[in-house]
Amino acid sequence: xxxxxxxxxxxxxxxxxxxxxxxxxxxxxxxxxxxxxxxxxxxxxxxxxxxxxxxxxxxxxxxxxxxxxxxxxxxxxxxxxxxxxxxxxxxxxxxxxxxxxxxxxxxxxxxxxx
Amino acid sequence: xxxxxxxxxxxxxxxxxxxxxxxxxxxxxxxxxxxxxxxxxxxxxxxxxxxxxxxxxxxxxxxxxxxxxxxxxxxxxxxxxxxxxxxxxxxxxxxxxxxxxxxxxxxxxxxxxxxxxx
Lengths: 114, 118
Hints:
The complex is a heterodimer. By secondary structure, chain A is mostly beta strands.
């Protein structure tokens, strides 16, 4: 059983640029969630996708967008990067009903915006 | 609004000591899940336990145990006979249900940094 994999591991971008982060969900999982973790803080929910549709969104501006593909993998896109976007971005996959499976997280992508 | 409070920012113990990490939560949902995750320096969030709000039985898994008390909205985590490898940041998290009735989001506490010294 393969776990959640994220790419790239690390990324350095310049303010104003755009970035795409990728996530492959754990085998059999149809739900993907993205979280942002700033240094010294707990993860903050960005959004969740279930069967290619957004199923909930946290308090993040529209320049944070996502996609889920038919194979349940996912992308997180951030436009017009700001310095405060520097963080660890975590992807988590699960089955739709959490009583049947907890959230399993990937190792994350560490984004630095200069 | 959902809220998770981990009042202990940092805890330092000597190996073999027992240590309890506190977690207090606020929610208006009647059905919810509580989680504990471990985050070692590598950054990955490692799932430790999920507890349903209807199940108040305490749970033990090896050196780990969890005490869920709905009356005080607490879900505390105890490590018995701590080891150096237990050093990590530990997060307590609370699920939230959307208008469609599905669990869609976790609200995390700020975490407790546990350092176990040899």
